[in-house]
Amino acid sequence: MKTRFILCAFLLVLFQTGGDLFGQSSGPGWNNNFKNDVLSGASQPQQSFRDSLYLWQENVQLQTDKSIFLPGEVLFFKADIFTGPEQLRVSASEVLKVEFLNKEGELLMSQFQRIENGMSHGSIEIPKKIDQGHYYLRAYT
Questions:
Q1: Residue whose C-alpha is closest to residue 44's, from 91, 54, 85, 87
Q2: Hey, what domains does the chain have and what are their CATH numbers?
Q3: Stated pTM of the model
Q4: Which of 5, 57, 108, 120 is deepest in the core (most CB within 10 A)?
Q5: Secondary structure of the chain: what % helix, strand, coil (to 5)?
């Protein structure tokens, strides 16, 4: 009976102290004033889902209506922007930059497109006076 009382008293004291006996109170990345920072507004917590998107890299997948174009034709494209480990079609960015490059990687023309719900689309008119060859279309946020 006496050992049962001592065990109960020990457990009661242990639970009353909370994590103070076993909790980690220092180490790399530990801020001793975290509670004070949050209460004073010095540290801003995540405000929305959009805030979390800035932590992840965006992947742009670009599709065109065909693969071979002639001078003077219009190149139509669609871009899907995937974000995060689950590759959701959402984007923290609001603008997609699309560039038309020659074989040497020199910029021939560029434009900006609005991103809505992780998607964007547009068109580029290929110049009438352009040499035959390989050209590249690059898109990024």
A1: 54
A2: 57-140 (2.60.40.1930)
A3: 0.59
A4: 120
A5: 20, 35, 50
